Amino acid sequence: GNCHLNEATHASVVGTMATTNMKFYYEVKINAADYSLGVMGSQPEATSGQSYNDPTAYGYYLNGYNFTAGSWSSDSTFSGVAIYMFAVDPTNNKLWVGQNGTWDGDPAAGSGNMITLGTHEYMPYVHSSGTGGDNSADCNFGGCSAFTVSSANQDADGYGNFEYAVPSGFYALCTKNLAEYG
């Protein structure tokens, strides 16, 4: 139930709910740029230690890279301290990343995704690179928000309390939505 990560060294956390079918949305507010954010397969490779180099990890490293299945590529679409938004479509193998209300594409239309996913059961993933200082990441899955939102956005079924609007067709990652869509 703790949605706050405070780390000064390399450390990773993954969600406790995963899906292969349901399109889901979540937000992460960070206070330092040395974070990797995205999704990871529910059964990461044992030798990876839940690392961003894991072949089931996909996402965005806030220092200007995206990572897909252990490979890295330069991408300076977003950077810095912000609230990052994630729209995950595991059925169509797509991941969209947004920052402070602006998307890299259009998740509702299914176009312009930043990252193409592999075929896995996915759950949220946060990694602190721990380059020094007091790094923190606060996750918001709709029901567990470690930060206060100024606007109360919900998914189409009325679940969640998000800072930014949930894209049409995406849902808060909760047991009620998983039971219906996931």
Question: Any overview of this molecule?
Answer:
The protein is mostly beta strands and 182 residues long. The chain contains one helix and 14 strands, in the order E-E-E-E-E-E-E-E-E-E-E-E-E-E-H. The strands form two sheets. Strands 1, 3, 8, 9, 10, 11, 13 and 14 form an eight-stranded mixed sheet that branches. The longest helix has 7 residues, at 175-181.
Brief summary of the model shown:
The protein has 182 residues and is mainly beta. The chain is built from one helix and 14 strands, in the order E-E-E-E-E-E-E-E-E-E-E-E-E-E-H.
Tally of DSSP β-strands: 14
Q: Averaged pLDDT, please? A: 85
Which quaternary structure do these chains form?
single chain
Helices and strands, in order, run as EEEEEEEEEEEEEEH
Count of alpha and pi helical runs: 1
What's the helical proportion of residues? under 10%
Shape designation: globular
* Cα radius of gyration in angstroms: 15 Å
Largest sheet: 8 strands, mixed
**Distance N terminus to C terminus?**
20 Å
Structural class: mainly beta
Taking pLDDT < 50 over at least 5 consecutive residues as the criterion, the unreliable ranges are none
Q: How big a fraction of the residues is strand?
A: 35-45%
Descriptive keywords:
14 strands; globular; 182 residues; 1 helix; single chain; 8-stranded mixed sheet; mainly beta; 6-stranded antiparallel sheet; 37% strand; 4% helix
Task: Please render the helix and strand layout as text.
Layout: E1 4-7, E2 11-14, E3 24-30, E4 35-41, E5 57-61, E6 65-68, E7 71-74, E8 83-89, E9 94-99, E10 102-103, E11 115-116, E12 122-128, E13 135-140, E14 171-172, H1 175-181
Parallel strand pairs: 3-14
Antiparallel strand pairs: 1-13, 2-12, 3-8, 3-13, 4-5, 4-12, 5-6, 6-7, 8-9, 9-10, 9-11
